[in-house]
Design a protein that fits this description.
With 397 residues, the protein is α/β, with parallel strands linked by helices. It has 2 domains: 266 residues, Crotonobetainyl-coa:carnitine coa-transferase, domain 1 (Rossmann fold, 3-Layer(aba) Sandwich), CATH 3.40.50; 82 residues, formyl-coa transferase, domain 3 (2-Layer Sandwich). Helix content is 37%, strand content 15%. The strands form 3 sheets. It has a 6-stranded parallel sheet with strand order 3-2-1-4-5-6, with helices on both faces. The two termini are 37 Å apart.
Length: 397
Amino acid sequence: MDDLLTDLIVLSMEQATTLPFLTMRLAFEGMRVIRLEHPQRGDPNRWVGPVVLDGEGMNAYFFPNNVGKQAITLNLQTDEGRAILHELITDLPVDIFCTNQLARSYKKLGIDYETLQAIKPDLIWLGITGFGPESDEPAYDPMLQARSGLMGLTGEADGPPMLSGLPLADIGSGEHGFGQIMKALYRRALTGQGSRIDISMFQSVVSWMVNPLMLATSLGIEIERHGNTHRFFAPASAFEAQDGYLYLAVGNDRQWQAITELPGFEGLAREEYRTNAGRIADVERLNEALAAIFRTRPADGLVAAFRSIGVPASRVNSVRDVVQDPYIRTRMVTARDPRSGLEIRLPPPPTITPFLEAAGFQMGFPPRLGEHNAEIYGGVLGYDARHLAGLKARGVV
């Protein structure tokens, strides 16, 4: 069962973040992922961030979501390019086709589900768009965070709305797509049938808004920005210690009682704070009292004390701190460029796959634009060097 997914082939017409993130997760499962890009333009993310390697399209921002993949170029705006795509669908053969092009491009590029499903009936087809296949409205992550209400919930109560530190609309849509692909593979295993999957990035983000949306529309309770604190639990906030910040999250009254029994915290054992409702009612003064204690102590000592009594607490880590965490340090994914020797490191996926373990957590380096044209067009379709040169001269690959 460890190699259950390693025979699957994914052809992905991908760019930016959301779909490359999804297909990276598929590559971590051992699937063969082939990126499909325009021969002249390529993925715009190739040219974002500092130039890391000599050669066009190998800037820093492109690297993280593209390890473990191959890359070919193909101009689908030409009849010849579309014919080659359809050859690849059958001759590779492709199990999963993905795209995050605007929906209006599907038919004219020959990548619409109906066309590809007619060529390979058991194909799993996935399209990620901003608002679903019926809309051609373009969408980027920050705009989706704003429109979904997520940005309106983020930031200090008396400050402006703020973006999350990560592109949550991009990443979340990719994760939702990953789950739907696994469901489609199960369906195909049972019935032999392919599937069409459409992921709306907007709907993906709004689907997380379970609590605020229900509270506002059903109970008339508006959830507004509240900074680092929690609307319904206290204390739950970031506090400054002698040597950095930590986050304390008290989830029940038993945990609070245990804190008041720690040395130095006994003065907080007040009757009005015995229940969460009482603590919420006086949360500002409660947090000020805690802050006064925390400022006199080192963060690690406070975290250790809280953990010893079963209360969740953590330093507010930098990215460099995170990679030293014992749950992460031994599971980092690495990829080395065979040409330059450059090695990059990535965090592990949420579950460690048998494929990753067998590979020693090493993946292929992010591919250069069209790096695998000769291997795939030659090895799969039998195109010789002369044929490939002609295709390149005509702007097809």
